[in-house]
């Protein structure tokens, strides 16, 4: 079993975040294993890299300038895990405020195996900002 060094994980994360900044879906999914399991902050789950690409394609194609701002990254080399704390800025996900700017904070927990991300679980605060105003 291939274990990544802390530096290896750091490099993967830097490339991954750059791909998000560039709205490069292929770059975002590149470090994912074919059997990736993604759990969205809404509770929905996507299994498989092809399925995840299909699920995210429309969002990336019409991205509206979204971005994830890195707040902090915690790397556990021993257990091959990363906790990525972020701020999302971009179009709101909710229909009620469609077309407005949303800001939300959250974390991703990423699990690595054999040098690839095998699981990504996203968690978000329930209080967000819509057009600069607090919304629940």
Write a brief caption for the model.
With 136 residues, this protein is α+β, with helices and mostly antiparallel strands. It has a single domain (6-135), classed as Roll (Nuclear Transport Factor 2, Chain: A), CATH 3.10.450. The protein has helices spanning 6-21, 25-29, 49-61, and strands at 32-39, 45-47, 67-76, 81-91, 101-113, 116-124, 128-130, 133-135.
Structure description:
- This protein has 136 residues and is an alpha+beta fold.
- The chain has one domain (6-135): Nuclear Transport Factor 2, Chain: A, CATH 3.10.450.
- It has helices at 6-21, 25-29, 49-61, and strands at 32-39, 45-47, 67-76, 81-91, 101-113, 116-124, 128-130, 133-135.
- Strands 1, 2, 3, 4, 5, 6, 7 and 8 form an 8-stranded mixed sheet that branches.
- The longest helix is centred in the first third of the chain and has 16 residues, at 6-21.
- The chain is globular.
Topology:
Blueprint: H1 6-21, H2 25-29, E1 32-39, E2 45-47, H3 49-61, E3 67-76, E4 81-91, E5 101-113, E6 116-124, E7 128-130, E8 133-135
Parallel strand pairs: 1-6
Antiparallel strand pairs: 1-2, 3-4, 4-5, 5-6, 5-7, 7-8
User: Could you give the count of β-strands?
Assistant: 8
Helix proportion of residues, in percent? 25-40%
Shape: globular
- CATH architectural grouping: Roll
| Share in β-strands | 35-45%
Here the CATH topology equals Nuclear Transport Factor 2, Chain: A
Give the terminus-to-terminus CA distance.
Answer: 44 Å
Q: DSSP helix count? A: 3
State Rg.
15 Å
């Amino acid at each position: 079993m291939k274990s990544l060094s802390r530096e290896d994980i750091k490099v993967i994360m830097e490339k991954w975040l750059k791909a998000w900044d560039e709205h490069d879906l292929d770059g975002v999914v590149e470090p994912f294993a074919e059997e990736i399991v993604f759990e969205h902050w809404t509770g929905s789950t996507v299994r498989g890299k092809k399925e995840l690409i299909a699920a995210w394609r429309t969002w990336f194609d019409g991205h509206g300038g979204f971005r994830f701002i890195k707040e902090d990254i915690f790397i556990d080399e021993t257990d091959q895990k990363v906790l990525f704390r972020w701020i999302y800025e971009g179009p709101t996900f909710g229909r009620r405020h469609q077309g407005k700017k949303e800001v939300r904070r959250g974390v991703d927990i990423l699990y690595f195996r054999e040098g690839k991300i095998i699981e990504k679980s996203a968690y978000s605060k329930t209080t967000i900002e819509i057009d600069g105003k607090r919304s629940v």
